[in-house]
C-alpha cells in the first residue's frame, strides 16, 4: 500500500469513529507502529489531524455538512477512488488537445495519467496542480495559470482577473468536480468564490466532464454549478450505486463508471 493510500484510509477511519489508536491502525494495515506514528506525525504537520497520546483525532472536524475541508485534506480523502477516476478520464484526452482542469482535489491526479508523448495545453486555476506537475516534468505539457485573487485554503485563483483570463480560451475539453449531485438538473459546488470561473469554462469548452466519486451523489452543496444539459459525461467510481445513476442515464446523460478493478472502466 502506498503512503498516500494509507493516509487516505486513516482519514476515513477518523471520520467514522472520531479517533484512532496507533496499535489498532498498525494491526489494521499490517504495518509497524513506527510506520503509523510517522504517518500520523506527517499528517499533523500538514494540518490533517491532531496527535493525542497513543493515537490521533481529526483536527478540522466539520461543524456543518455544507462546510468544505481545505484541499490538503480533500486530496487525501478517497485517494484510490479519485485516482482511478482520473486514470479513466485521461483516456478521453487526445494529442493536441487544450483542456481546462479545475482546482478540485479530484482532478489533481489527472495530469499524471495523460500519455507523456501527447502535446497538451492545460488551463487551470489550481496552484496545487501546477506545483504537483513539477514532479513529472513533462515538456510536452504546456500550463496556463488563470490569474486572480489567491484562495489560501484551496490553493487556487478566483475573481475578475480569473474570469478575464479564462475568457481568452475555448478548450477542447473541460474536467472538473463538484461538491454535490442531487439530480440530473442539479450539480452544485461549495465555493461561491470559484464557481463563476467553473461556469465560464463549462460554457466555453467543447466537451464537459464531471469527475465525481460516490460521496458526491444524493447531496447538494451551497451553490448551483450546472445542469445535465451543460455536461457531456460524468465519470464516477465503482462504489456509486446503480439506483443513484439510473436517473442520470434515463435523462440521457452519459455515465462512465470505474470497475472494481481500477485498471478497467465500464460504460
Short description:
The protein is of the alpha/beta class and 267 residues long. Helices cover 32% and strands 24% of the residues.
Give the key terms.
Arc Repressor Mutant, subunit A, disordered C terminus, alpha/beta, 8-stranded mixed β-sheet, 267 residues, 3-stranded antiparallel β-sheet
Q: Would you give an account of this structure?
A:
The chain is an alpha/beta fold and 267 residues long. The radius of gyration is 19 Å and the shape is globular. The protein has 9 helices and 16 strands. The chain has an 8-stranded mixed β-sheet with strand order 6-5-4-9-12-14-15-16, sandwiched between helices. Strands 1-3-2 form a 3-stranded antiparallel β-sheet. A 3-stranded antiparallel β-sheet has the order 10-11-13, with helices on one face. Helix 2 (22-29) crosses helix 3 (33-45). A hairpin with a 2-residue loop joins strand 10 (180-183) and strand 11 (186-189). It has helices spanning 3-17, 22-29, 33-45, 71-74, 79-90, 127-133, 160-166, 195-204, 242-250, and strands spanning 19-21, 49-52, 55-58, 98-101, 120-124, 141-145, 149-151, 156-158, 173-176, 180-183, 186-189, 207-211, 223-226, 233-236, 254-258, 265-266. The longest helix is centred in the N-terminal third of the chain and has 15 residues, at 3-17. It has 2 domains: 3-61, Arc Repressor Mutant, subunit A; 77-266, 3-Layer(aba) Sandwich (Rossmann fold), CATH 3.40.50.
Amino acid at each position: 500500500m502506498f503512503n498516500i493510500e494509507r493516509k487516505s484510509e486513516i482519514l476515513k477511519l477518523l471520520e467514522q469513529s472520531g479517533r484512532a489508536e496507533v496499535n489498532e491502525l498498525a494491526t489494521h494495515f499490517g504495518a509497524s507502529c513506527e510506520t503509523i506514528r510517522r504517518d500520523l506525525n506527517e499528517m499533523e504537520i500538514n494540518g490533517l489531524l491532531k496527535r493525542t497520546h497513543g493515537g490521533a483525532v481529526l483536527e478540522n472536524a466539520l461543524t456543518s455538512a455544507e462546510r468544505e475541508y481545505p484541499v490538503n485534506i480533500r486530496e487525501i480523502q478517497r485517494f484510490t477512488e479519485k485516482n482511478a477516476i482520473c486514470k479513466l478520464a485521461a483516456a478521453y484526452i487526445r494529442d493536441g488537445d487544450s483542456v481546462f482542469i479545475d482546482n478540485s482535489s479530484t482532478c489533481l491526479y489527472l495530469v499524471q495519467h495523460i500519455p507523456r508523448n501527447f502535446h497538451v495545453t492545460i488551463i487551470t486555476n489550481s496552484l496545487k496542480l501546477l506545483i504537483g506537475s513539477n514532479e513529472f516534468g513533462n515538456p510536452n505539457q504546456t500550463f496556463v495559470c488563470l490569474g486572480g485573487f489567491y484562495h489560501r485554503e484551496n490553493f487556487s485563483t478566483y475573481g475578475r482577473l480569473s474570469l478575464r483570463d479564462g475568457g481568452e480560451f475555448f478548450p477542447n475539453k473541460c474536467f472538473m468536480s463538484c461538491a454535490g449531485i442531487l439530480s440530473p438538473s442539479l450539480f452544485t459546488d461549495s465555493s461561491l468564490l470559484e464557481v463563476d470561473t467553473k461556469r465560464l469554462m463549462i460554457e466555453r469548452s467543447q466537451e464537459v466532464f464531471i469527475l465525481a466519486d460516490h460521496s458526491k451523489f444524493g447531496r447538494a452543496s451551497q451553490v448551483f454549478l450546472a445542469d445535465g444539459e451543460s455536461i457531456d459525461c460524468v465519470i464516477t467510481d465503482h462504489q456509486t450505486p446503480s439506483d443513484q445513476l439510473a436517473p442520470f442515464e434515463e435523462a440521457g446523460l452519459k455515465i462512465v463508471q470505474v470497475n472494481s478493478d481500477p485498471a478497467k472502466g465500464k460504460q
